[in-house]
Specification:
Helices cover about 40% and strands about 15% of the residues. The mean pLDDT is about 95. It has helices at about 10-15, 15-30, 35-50, 60-70, 90-95, 115-120, 140-150, 205-215, 235-265, 295-305, 335-340, 355-365; strands at about 55-60, 80-85, 100-105, 125-130, 155-160, 165, 170, 180, 195-200, 280, 285-290, 340-345. It folds into two domains: about 10-240, Aspartate Aminotransferase, domain 2; about 245-365, Aspartate Aminotransferase, domain 1, CATH 3.90.1150. Helix 2 packs antiparallel against helix 9 (about 235-265), helix 3 packs parallel to helix 9 (about 235-265) and helix 4 crosses helix 5. Helix 5 (about 90-95) links the parallel strand 2 (about 80-85) and strand 3 (about 100-105).
Length: about 375
């Protein structure tokens, strides 16, 4: 039985093997393992690809959020609004940086922060908002920025799944005061290990973040503040530099595969397909469908050699670590429904039409029994 992987990182490596091997060999030859020219080059290249003045690299996407909020001056007791559906990094870093998490429901179409619910969540203690461009679909940044401006709040965009996504022709990551990215291996732009980055147009903020990520100083033994150790290593930077050049083509391939899924599954019984708003350029980090019997369908697909995933099975407010907030399922109906019903199908740039046809056929057959 042929297995259709959820993501095929080895196939991606094989497609650019010579470039990757040469980059790694260059780092080893120069022994430039911590920072160095490859890191500096990636920071400049990535900032240019997003359209910002500065990129501060760091060890991972979670650190990126923590570093950004620390540099923004988050204080104990400050409230930060985050969507109820995201990976826990979005919320846990608020607490780690000294703030208090306030959850907000998502909208039913894009699954991103609902601007109307956002306005209701603001209190006198609110200082910031973290919209998440979930699954690669942009949040409604025009309304979010309007609300933030009206209340004097900073905006930190969580772009961990949205490299090169656009809102009305403008790349996400260029709206807020600062924006964070993850380069976890399975991301649209992924390293071969952990890696993260933060972008901003604010030179002062960029310097504070860089200092904080490097033990509080830009030069060794010159510690201006107390910081942390969160550095992108030379090997990952060299790999990311190679992959960044291919990211536009990979993104277009993701979009083509997503469009093909939509066409082929349009009449599949009991399957609700994801959408792309007319103001958005979705980069399809995952292609998630909604069905009534998620677990049963996943098991039937697994039996046919098709790997699937769930992003994410539980909305953040209902996790044990946030039980002290005292939320009920009725507080976040959209996030709760999404967590219970979604399945992410295989989608990666190297996916062949034959592989996709196999997934579609199996889904059409098994969905009828849902």
């Amino acid at each position: 039985m042929t297995t259709i992987p959820f993501v095929d990182l080895h196939a991606q490596y094989l497609s650019i093997k010579d470039e990757i091997d040469a980059a790694i060999a260059d780092v080893i030859s120069a022994s430039s393992f911590i920072r160095g020219p490859h890191v500096e080059r990636f920071e400049a290249n990535f900032a240019n690809s997003i359209g910002t003045a500065h990129c501060v690299s760091c060890a991972n996407g979670t650190d990126a959020l923590y570093i950004a909020m620390s540099a923004l001056g988050l204080r104990r007791g400050d409230e930060v609004i985050v969507p109820a559906m995201s990976w826990i990094s979005t919320s846990e870093t608020v607490t780690q940086a000294g703030g208090r998490v306030v959850f907000c429901d998502i909208d039913s179409v894009t699954h991103t922060l609902d601007p109307e619910k956002l306005a209701e969540a603001i209190t006198p203690r609110t200082v910031g908002i973290i919209p998440v461009h979930l699954y690669g679909h942009p949040a409604r940044m025009d309304r979010i920025m309007e609300i933030a401006s009206a209340h004097g709040l900073w905006v930190l965009e969580d772009c961990a799944q949205a490299h090169l996504a656009e809102f009305r022709g403008r790349k996400v990551g260029t709206f807020g005061a600062v924006s964070t990215f993850s380069f976890y291996p399975s991301k649209n732009l992924g390293a071969m290990g952990d890696a993260g980055g933060i972008v901003t147009d604010d030179a002062g903020l960029a310097e504070r973040m860089a200092m904080f990520a490097r033990h509080g100083g830009l030069q060794k033994h010159d510690h201006q503040i107390e910081g942390i150790n969160s550095r992108l290593d030379g090997l990952q930077a060299a790999i990311l530099n190679v992959k960044l050049a291919h990211l536009p083509a990979w993104t277009e391939r993701r979009r083509a595969l997503a469009a093909r899924y939509g066409k082929l599954l349009d009449t599949a019984s009991g399957v609700a397909l994801p959408t792309e708003a007319d103001w958005a350029t979705h980069v399809w980090h995952v292609y998630q469908i909604r069905v009534a019997d998620r677990d049963g369908l996943m098991q039937r697909l697994k039996a046919q050699g098709i790997q699937t995933g769930v992003n994410y099975p539980n909305a953040l407010p209902f996790m044990p670590c946030y039980a002290h907030h005292g939320h009920t399922l009725e507080d976040f109906p959209q996030a709760n429904a999404l967590g219970n019903q979604t399945i992410s199908l295989p989608l990666f740039p190297e996916m062949t039409k034959a592989q996709q046809d196999t997934v579609v056929q199996a889904l059409q057959e098994t969905a009828q029994n849902n």
